[in-house]
Design a protein that fits this description.
This protein has about 600 residues and is mostly beta strands. Helices cover about 0% and strands about 40% of the residues. It folds into three domains: about 290 residues, Glycosyl hydrolase domain, family 43 (Tachylectin-2, Chain A, 5 Propeller); about 140 residues, Jelly Rolls, CATH 2.60.120.260; about 80 residues, Sandwich (Immunoglobulin-like), CATH 2.60.40.10. Strands 29, 30, 31, 32, 33, 34, 35 and 36 form an eight-stranded antiparallel β-sheet that branches. Strands 14, 15, 16, 17 and 18 form a five-stranded antiparallel β-sheet that branches. Strands 19, 20, 21, 22 and 23 form a five-stranded antiparallel β-sheet that branches.
Length: about 600
């Protein structure tokens, strides 16, 4: 979120069952794939402009009594999960006048002991809610009307933090390209009202921090936006997270400042941004929160950008995260839109959660039952959420077939729908998604591998993990139902393994810092035969290469990285990947 006029959007949850083939009823799923597969809600706020879209943004995932609750912008409710895989939408059980008529934008949520607290972004007086059973939707008023913020406007993009070591409460907020992140202590004995005047904590410095510059790949001169506060306490240190430079474009990211006290002073983290995903299919990682699962593993959430129908059309992502031995908070976005395991134990490294299932569908040829001019079937394999196939009708029986080129071991499929000229402005009982997936070795004899026709749930970013690998060459989508008047799919992404060896490590890798602007660096490399793409890796030390920029092999073998901090030394490396695996990374190269 950036300001009250910079509109937020929403998301939704789903689950399915596997018994020989996939259905939509319960689950045996062990993996997930960004964007998170939930029933993103249709948004009402652009109805006057006849713009229909589904969205999700500004996520907060709260671990409450061992179960998970996801809160996002303008959703009319929240989602409940027991495993971080299967999400069920929960509508608030309150009288209509008790739920804000404008809905909740970028809400604050936290769990303390047996209670979950919920508060919206606002510039007015609004209530703080509380519940002990968020799974059933029942809310009570903890504070019927929180007073106006003393000394600042807001709180927009709020985050409420409870310091269990000191039994003190705080609120952090801010969302603009003019003002800083603020913090204030709260008085729990007085319904979490403000104890003092808002204090300024820190602001953006794009002249020093390249990643804080606005625009695609940080190339716009618009003054950047700071927003999305979140506080995490770890080993006695306070990590105050923020998002920049704005929810638009591919570079939305999370950063952090670190302090010894909840209201500072704070020091800029040298490895910022902590969560950054500018390349690949699903881009953008800013404005979310940091939380622990039931096994002590850390996660960082964020807001990828879609913007087909409206600039604030977005989705939700979740990345493995952690703190290293030096206390640096970081999230792993390497292969961040490929399937990842959801752990059932404590892992030692975020790398353990990548399944190793590779992308098999990139630029593969497609045929379809029909398509409209300028909306070719080949758009579903270009790894671009902003291009899409549109069938001539949305009637049952429309299909699209992806030829993988040779037999491969298929493990999972993701189907990403697009709202092309939709006329829906609220998610109701008519909004659901039904389809089947088929496989074939010869393109003639077909077997159903996933059947999502047995329930009426909306799945705009459906991710289907197969119960067992299938060796096949063709994957076909068979349409049954969408509520939109048009059947439009941006990407069908097929994951698994192809026969063969991983690619060689790219040779002739070079990195050079921009002599005129130390916020930028130039990297180049020699193409690797058979590679599907490359990951540019960098960080502040050879063993801290926490940043990734994914580039596909049909792009230029060179890249300008514009996300560096002035006066900070960096190490860079590169790895190649294909349908069979990932190369060893190159020897890191240093720049000063």
């Amino acid at each position: 979120m950036t300001s009250p006029s910079r509109i937020c959007l929403i998301v939704v949850g789903l689950a399915f069952n596997f018994a020989g083939r996939c259905t939509g009823e319960s689950t045996g799923q062990k993996t997930f794939c960004n964007p998170i597969d939930i029933d993103y809600q249709y948004n009402f706020e652009q109805k006057a402009n006849h713009i229909s879209y589904r969205s999700g943004a500004d996520p907060v995932i709260v671990n409450h009594k061992g179960e998970y609750f996801l809160f996002v912008t303008i959703s009319g409710g929240w989602w409940h999960s027991k495993d971080l895989v299967n999400w069920r939408f929960v509508k608030p059980d309150v009288s209509p006048h008790e739920w804000p008529k404008e809905d909740m934008c970028a809400p604050a949520a936290l769990s303390v002991k047996d209670k979950l607290y919920l508060f919206q972004s606002t510039f007015e007086r609004r209530p703080i809610y509380v519940t002990t059973t968020p799974e059933n939707g029942r809310l009570s008023l903890f504070n019927p009307l929180l007073p106006y913020v003393p000394g600042a406007a807001g709180p927009w993009d709020p985050a409420i933090f409870y310091d269990e070591d000191t039994d003190r409460w705080f609120i952090y907020f801010g969302s603009s390209n003019l003002y800083p992140i603020y913090g204030i202590e709260l008085d729990y004995t007085n319904q979490l009202t403000y104890l003092k005047t808002a204090g300024e904590l820190f602001t953006l410095h794009p002249e020093l921090h390249g990643w804080e510059r606005f625009g695609r790949d940080h190339r716009d001169s618009i003054k950047p936006f700071m927003e999305g506060a979140w506080m995490t306490k770890h080993n006695g240190k306070y990590y105050l997270q923020y998002a920049a430079p704005g929810t638009e474009y591919n570079v939305y990211a999370n950063g952090t400042y670190v302090g010894d006290n909840p209201l500072g002073p704070f020091k800029y983290a040298l490895n910022n941004p902590i969560s950054y995903k500018p390349g690949g299919c699903v881009t953008g990682a800013g404005h979310g929160n940091t939380f622990q699962d039931n096994f002590g593993n850390w996660w960082n959430t964020g807001t990828p950008w879609v913007a087909v129908n409206f600039n604030f059309e977005r989705r939700i992502a979740m990345f493995p995260a952690g703190f290293d031995a030096d206390g640096l908070l970081h999230a792993s976005t390497r292969f961040g839109d490929f399937p990842h395991f959801v752990p059932t134990n404590k892992v030692q490294s975020t790398k353990e959660l990548f399944t190793g299932w590779m992308l098999l569908s990139y630029r593969k040829p497609c045929t379809a039952s029909s398509y409209r001019e300028k909306f070719s079937p080949t758009n579903v394999t270009d790894e671009n959420l902003r291009s899409f196939w549109v069938a001539e009708s949305s009637s049952p029986g429309q299909w699209i077939d992806i030829d993988l080129g040779r037999p491969c071991e298929v493990r999972a499929v993701q189907v990403n729908f697009t709202d092309y000229k939709s006329d829906i402005y609220a998610s109701d009982t008519r909004v659901f998604t039904q389809f089947k997936l088929h496989e074939s070795l010869d393109g003639k004899n077909w077997n159903v591998i996933a059947d999502l026709t047995n329930e009426k749930r909306d799945r705009p970013n459906a991710y289907i993990e197969l119960p067992k690998p299938v060796r096949t060459r063709h994957i076909k989508y068979e349409h049954v139902y969408v509520a939109s008047p048009n059947l439009a799919i941006s990407d069908i992404r097929v994951f698994g393994h192809s026969d063969g060896k991983p690619p060689a490590t790219p040779a002739n890798f070079k990195v050079r810092r921009d002599a005129k602007d130390a916020r930028n660096a130039f990297v180049s490399w020699a193409r690797v035969p058979g590679a599907v793409g490359y990951n540019i890796l960098w960080g502040i030390q050879d063993d801290k290469l926490y940043q990734t920029y994914q580039v596909f092999a049909d792009q230029k073998p060179a890249l300008e990285i514009r996300a560096l901090t002035v006066d900070q030394e960096y190490s860079f490396a590169i790895e190649a990947f294909n349908e069979s695996g990932v190369s060893s990374p190159s020897k890191p190269g240093k720049i000063k």
